[in-house]
From TrEMBL:
It comes from Methanoculleus thermophilus. This is Fumarase, class I alpha subunit. Pfam families: Fumerase. The lineage of its organism: Archaea, Methanobacteriati, Methanobacteriota, Stenosarchaea group, Methanomicrobia. The keyword Cell cycle does not apply. GO terms for molecular function: 4 iron, 4 sulfur cluster binding; lyase activity; metal ion binding.
């Protein structure tokens, strides 16, 4: 049985998780929307311009009708920040799971979570190890959700490059997008994790998708230009706009390693953060 105070916090976290999922699924973050509008203005290819106009119309209709932006509502990836006075407890994990269950029923979300081998659907978007919940210390008690669709997740890649292949990172990133073609619903946003270990590089790549895309440093811009030079274009039909942005997170690594992970994200870069009401 839960301690009353822990139960209260878990309940508040469930509410916040449900709210964050509703917000993320229905409304794109302002930086992503601005990037799509900017791309639509700059695009020179007529078919690509029409595709971007269709995407923008889809986004506007979703907000007007208060329905999810895409039929693939993804699987929730969840990030919690906990201030020093809130200890991490199993009840908080239960709070997140309850919020996901409720959002599945109320938003509603497509039940996407299945057993990996039997493919049996849990029907509420929770399951063994799902949703993925990442916890970090912070000043505020917040929940951030990043619903991840399969079209883009399935074409993500990790490479264990050699330490001498730093200059090859750009080729690896562009090759990932080239191999993916139209499958991840471009224009994409790429989260790139460089360094760490096999698992940390993948985690960094996903965290990079939480960063605002209205600014890129010189290296991120260089990678983005290399991807856009591919000419894959919106929905893979050709054009200037293959990637809206590339965001990079790094960690130091073994002197003999150079892990590089590319987490591909479609234009529906859904993310939202809600402060938990305590
Ligand atoms: S890749 Fe993105 S836009 Fe395409 S179907 Fe999946 S969630 Fe929807």
């Amino acid at each position: 049985m839960m301690h009353p105070e822990t139960a209260r916090l878990a309940g508040a976290l469930a509410d916040a998780t449900e709210r964050a999922l509703r917000e993320a699924e229905i409304r794109l973050p302002p930086d992503v929307l601005a990037a799509l509008r900017k791309a639509a203005e700059a695009e020179r290819n007529e078919v690509a311009r029409q595709e971007l106009a269709n995407i923008l119309e889809n986004i506007a209709l979703a907000e007007e009708r208060q329905v999810p932006i895409c039929q693939d509502t993804g699987v929730p990836v969840v990030y919690l920040t906990l201030p020093p006075d809130i200890p991490l407890s199993p009840d908080l994990y239960q709070g997140v799971r309850e919020g996901v269950r409720r959002a599945t029923a109320t938003v509603p979300l497509r039940p996407n979570v299945v057993d990996p081998l039997s493919r049996e659907n849990t029907n509420d978007n929770t399951g063994a190890g799902m949703p993925a919940i990442h916890v970090a210390p912070g000043d505020r008690f917040t929940v951030t959700v990043l619903p991840k669709g399969a079209g883009s997740e399935n074409v993500s890649r990790i490479g264990m490059l050699l330490p001498s292949q730093v200059a090859e990172i750009k080729r690896f990133v562009a090759e990932t997008v080239l191999l993916a073609g139209g499958r991840p619903c471009p224009p994409v946003i790429l989260g790139v994790g460089i360094g760490g270990t096999f698992d940390l590089a993948a985690a960094l790549a996903k965290e990079a998708l939480l960063l605002p895309i209205d600014v890129m440093d010189d290296y991120e811009q260089e990678l983005c230009d290399a991807v856009n030079a591919l000419g894959i274009g919106p929905m893979g039909l050709g054009g200037d706009t293959t990637a809206l942005a590339v965001k990079v997170k790094r960690a130091d690594c073994h002197t003999a390693s150079l892990p590089v992970a590319v987490n591909v994200q479609c234009w529906a870069c859904r993310r939202a953060t809600v402060e938990v009401e305590r």
